[in-house]
Amino acid sequence: MQRKTKVALAAATTASALGALLLVPGQLALSADHIDPPARTDPAVDSTPDIPADIADIYAFHDATNLYLIYTFGGPSATTLPAFYDRDVLNFIDISTSPPATSADVQIRFKFGPGTGPGEWGIQVDNVPGVNGSIVGPVEQILSKDGVRVYAGLRDDPFFFDSQGLRESRAMGTIRFDKNRNFFGAKNITVVALEIPRSRFGNNGNAALDISVRSARFGGQI
Predict the structure, then answer these.
(1) Is pLDDT at 200 greater than 70 in this prediction?
(2) Residue pair 91/110 in contact by the 8 Å Cβ criterion
(3) How many domains does the chain have?
């Protein structure tokens, strides 16, 4: 199942991607939100797109012990471009552990800031269940604290889609998708990945979770 929605947050929120995950084997849902809303993030519509605040995907999966969340943004981008770390963008991962699905029972937040040397950046992650205080450290490294691991950096875009097939299907009125064509195959994306013990989300690690992500810019384009 794929779903996406938009929310307004202090007139500066871009968009949000929403999915659902049941912490039992075989249950998984993913969502995509590339270049949305177009008026803020699509270069074809806005000559100064807000790429660092543009949500791409939220991936959620688990094993017997941990919940894994991968938030991607700032793409798809050419392999010649660096990662997008903007200190004026605040990112949210909202997790609902009980009805309604829109309740943010757990609200993980992360943001970036300059490091101690030229070209250096760091990440700060707050409100992670079971973590005392913030998780803070450099990007492009695995950070560990209180049983949680975090990684932020530039990676290959894992999303797979035949955009040419979509255009041809619309134009010709017949399905033209080709499983061997992947528009995102030669693109990069900025990612933040979290590994969190699933027991921290209630019901002995078997809670049904609704997960959404959103980004907000301080002093943005609006």
Answers:
(1) yes
(2) yes
(3) 1
